Amino acid sequence: MIIEKSKSMREKVYDRLKEMIINEELKPGERIIEVEFSEKFKVSRTPLREAIRMLELEGLLEDSGGNGMAVKKIGISDIQEVYEIRIALEGIILKEIVENKDKNGINQLEELLNKTKKLLDTSKDADQLFKLFSEFNDILYNLSKYQKVVNLIKNINMYLRIFRKYSIDNEVVID
User: Fold this and answer.
1) Cβ-based neighbours of 173, under 8 Å, separated by 6 or more
2) Please, are residues 69 and 57 in contact by the beta-carbon 8 Å criterion?
3) Which residues 6+ apart lie within 8 Å of 124 measured at CB?
């Protein structure tokens, strides 16, 4: 697996490692062995170390007790914290939309909420529900003038994708 060189090497390695964590190519607790990954990515250890440090700062990697870094195991408290942050950020956006009296936007959101309620009352089709939830979020984020808040939420959503996959595989640690 070779990393392209159009971005900085550190960014490419960071993107690839992050993708591997999100897609569960790297499992919780799995160690990142610098020699292996620098050979796998065909890069020197310096950009790999820099990327690892960035992922540690994001909370995706943790010190594995003197044996380098490992993919962080997810606990219930991690999930609760991320959801609370997302709820707070989405509250900022909702407040902005209501204060700006964006009637069209509010009507779109209400329409989607009504569709969701009908679906919940009739079929509870999970795929269709997730589609409606995504559509609601897309409209909500597009209505906002707070792009920094939207970007923070999108970054948090990356964690939520990881959490969902981990919970399906029963790899969530109760702490």
Assistant:
1) 73, 74, 75, 76
2) no
3) none
What's the rounded Cα separation, in Å, for the pair 48 and 55? 11
Q: Do 109 and 139 form a contact (C-beta atoms < 8 A)?
A: yes
Hey, how many other C-beta atoms are within 10 angstroms of the C-beta on 6? 7
User: pLDDT by residue (tens digit) across 103-158?
Assistant: 888 899 999 999 999 988 888 777 888 889 889 999 999 999 999 999 999 888 88
- Average per-residue pLDDT in the chain? 86
- The pLDDT, as a whole number, for residue 12 is 92
Decide: helix, strand or coil at residue 75. Answer: strand
> How many beta carbons lie within 10 A of that of residue 68, not counting itself?
13
CA distances from 91 to 86, 96, 106, 134 (A): 8, 8, 14, 17
pTM over 0.90: no
Look up residue 161 and give its two tokens. 């994708």
Closest CA to 33 of 12, 64, 59, 8: 64
The two three-digit tokens of residue 82, written as one number? 């991320």
User: Around 2, how many Cα atoms within 13 Å sit in the side-chain half-sphere?
Assistant: 3
